Amino acid sequence: MSLKICSLASGSKGNCIFIGSARTSLLLDAGVPLKRINASLEAIGESMPSHVLLSHTHSDHYAYVPALVREGAVLHYGRMARRFVDVPGEEFCGDFCIGDITVSPFSVSHDVPCCGYSFYSEGSKVTVVTDLGFMPKATLEAMSDSDAVLIESNYDPGMLDANPRYPAYLKARISGSRGHLSNAEAAECSAYLAGKGVKHILLGHLSEQNNTPELAVRSAEETLMKYGLSGAAKISAALQREVSEVIEIS
Predict the structure, then answer these.
(1) Burial 25-51 (b: 16+ CB within 10 A, else e)
(2) Of 49, 52, 47, 51, which is closest to residue 30 (Cα–Cα)?
């Protein structure tokens, strides 16, 4: 095993992703309580990592990062997030290493400074990208040699448009260029990646108000079918209240 990825929680109410190699482990974001993180890690046979990376400082990603830092974890965050981070950490402005994992951050379009990440170890590559209003072709191409990808599939446009609890300004924010990816947008990205050889695609950050796992997965699978790529990649959804499968890259 060179790399493995598991979503411990994914959605608008809290996010936390585990990345591990044979000798190193880390968390990406901590938007759920430490008690839950510990229980989720125990369920997959892992212990609490000593490093946590931050995608951005919205509370569903950052809320429990300070608690992790107080427990001794080392926080890594991008230079542009400096003014939003209120605990000690290590600032990065390019690629860096944590143990035998090389971390390659890249900026994405959101309404606060936000990073996606690629992780490399022993010839394997895993990429995680959520909270982005659009997917640049260059970013998608850079992800295309990954073995596994977790990509945002936040909302179904019909559900969002019909949601009476969301005011017009919030709908515009979500669907705008600094908001989130829709199922259709994520599905097109998934088809491109599957066509390039990505074998595992985990759809993440699903809205509980404006999406369902079934809709997200169906959209991606139907788009792969449209391009003659049925079965080229395994498509699954990362959920808010459940630990995902552990995807191991050998």
Answers:
(1) bbbbbbbbebebbeebbeeeebebbbb
(2) 52
d(CA 203, CA 154): 9
Question: What span, in angstroms and rounded, lies between the C-alpha atoms of 89 and 155?
Answer: 33
* Distance from C-alpha of 155 to C-alpha of 183, rounded to nearest angstrom: 6
Query: Which residues contact residue 138 at a Cβ distance below 8 angstroms, ignoring those fewer than 6 apart?
Result: none
Using one digit for the tens of pLDDT, what is the confidence trace for 87-137?
999 999 999 999 999 999 999 999 999 999 999 999 999 999 999 999 999
With both helix axes pointing from N to C terminus, report the angle between 183-195 and 213-226 in degrees, rounded to the nearest 10: 50
| Average pLDDT value for the chain | 97
pLDDT at 195: 98
Residue 73 CB coordination number (10 Å):
21
d(CA 175, CA 37): 30
> DSSP assignment of 171-199, as one string?
HHHHHSTTS--BHHHHHHHHHHHHHTT--
For the CA atoms of the chain, what is the radius of gyration?
A: 17
